[in-house]
Amino acid sequence: MSALMAFARGIDRVTTFVGRGVSWLILVVVLVSAGNAVIRKIFDMSSNAWLELQWYLFGAIFMLAAAWTLQRNEHIRVDIVSNALSKRTRDWIDFVGHIVILLPFVSLMVWLLWPYVMQSIRINEYSSNAGGLVIWPAKAMLLAGFLLLFFQGISELIKRGAVLFAGYPDETPAGVSHAAEASEMALLAPDEPQGGTERPTGAKGTLTHSEPRR
């Protein structure tokens, strides 16, 4: 299991590196979009190349950051259901979901996209719009995004299995799925500890409650 965990952490490092790098493309998209809008309004000029560049960059952000979002546990869940379940039940749902839904779907997309992208690269496909850009890099981002998501899915499966079957501590970030639960615990009245312990914090001695062990 230690070797598998080392493999999973290696995938996590690659995913984090790519995700943080891709996040800078958001600034590029904003600058390109703003520059294109200013030029169009002031000089009454526009370009299909600039418009397509915006779309390509947005697609790259969405696809290449998907694996990082999974690694950070930031994908949206149904909080009203998820927060009502025990931690172990959520772990089992993630474990089974990765095996039954995520990995088969991502594997299918990689299998379908491979010839689609290779054909586009082979013919050096360009946009049909006047002055448009070459298309194959944008298509390649689709394949790259699903490949990253596949390996991150393997990493999450290993980590969830280590928690369930080998007693490893859970290193998964809380993410948005537990934000409502954390807010609810923070707002509990002092006379409703819900099995937790009270401790004064801050200058005014505000009472907070630690979450009971599950």
UniProtKB/TrEMBL annotation:
Give me the ranges of the annotated region Disordered: 187-214
Acyltransferase among the record's keywords?
Answer: no
Q: Does the keyword Protease apply?
A: no
Its predominant location is membrane
Residues in coiled coil: none
Membrane-traversing stretches: 21-43, 55-71, 92-114, 134-151
Localization, per the record, is: Cell inner membrane
For this protein, the record's InterPro entries field holds: DctQ, TRAP_DctQ
What UniProt keywords are attached to this protein's entry? Answer: Cell inner membrane, Cell membrane, Membrane, Transmembrane, Transmembrane helix, Transport
Q: Write down the membrane topology.
A: Multi-pass membrane protein
- Where does the record place the Tripartite ATP-independent periplasmic transporters DctQ component domain? 30-159
> What domain of life is recorded for the organism?
Bacteria
Task performed by this protein? Part of the tripartite ATP-independent periplasmic (TRAP) transport system.
**What does the sequence similarity comment in the record state about its family?**
Belongs to the TRAP transporter small permease family.
Assembly and interactions? The complex comprises the extracytoplasmic solute receptor protein and the two transmembrane proteins.
Q: What is this protein called?
A: TRAP transporter small permease protein
